[in-house]
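Researcher: Go.
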Amino acid sequence: MRLLFLAVLRPHTGNAVTAKRVRDHLEAAGHVCVLRDAFDFQSPSDIADLIMAENVDAALALHLYRGGRLLQGHHIPFGVIFGGTDLNEDANHGLKSEVMGKVLEEARFAVAFTQSMKEKAQAQWPHAKGKIYVQSQGIAATPNPAFNWKEFLQRSEINESADNLRIFLLICGLRQVKDPLFLVDAFSEWHEEESNVYLVIVGPEVDPEFTREVKARVKRASGVRLVSEMSQGDLHAAMKNCFALVNSSVSEGMSAAILEAMDLEVPVLARNIPGNAAVVEHEVTGLLFSDPQEFVQLAKRLLRDPELEREIVANGKEYMRRHHSWQVERNTYQGLVRTLEGSAED
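Model: Structure:
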């Protein structure tokens, strides 16, 4: 089949990484996958010409509102994948929620990353029961073997011996929902006490106004650094070299960075929100914190307790093996897309 796949494709973001991985799964089954950025289109009418020009048989959208709404009314079968902000943010806005409900009426299937996301969607749109499937993200982290950690530290303006450093890496696009400033003040105070601990924030400048605020705050904070986006291979290599991966988001669907850290056997400290708690079990596969002070307390504990670090890393790796298989994800999407074969009237 020829498939149109709509997703938000901002470079170096979780949605873009997920979309490209799913595209690879579908192309491996012999489908032609026309991947387009949902932000390039304003309404379903904008998509009509593309459907004709590309002669597509069916479609898929990642993010129920941003992508899914564009596929309405074209009389081609389609499926949708929940992103995270669609369920956690957009579903709380009346008009958007209504639009997404209509998208689910037309969709042949919908994919949620976690059971809790599925339950939330079913509570919001009861008519969608029976067509929502749970498929966690399949992860295969691939660090760049040529990555230079010392150069990364220099780029981060950390001019100290790498041997004694403890780098906490926060990977996120610079937008408010990711809340990269949540830990800045508390971390800065900790760095004043222990000069070898650093928080390095890495990610693309998604929201220009918010980015200016982040840059200004980080500039004033000791022990906190900001690094622009990196390729996925370099990001995985940096993760492999850091002491721990940090997530401070206000909401998440399923953080690929958390899963990649577990796969790479790097400890995870994540904000205690539903999306993170669905994959991080406190003191088993990672550590969950509710406020900046608790983060610092847990980070210090992790530094001083190598046995806890070993246990968390081993449990995280095993969790990944059991629940986030890349091959299982491939099989699921290939199977679901087969349900799109044939006309919309079938």
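Model: The chain has a mean pLDDT of 93.
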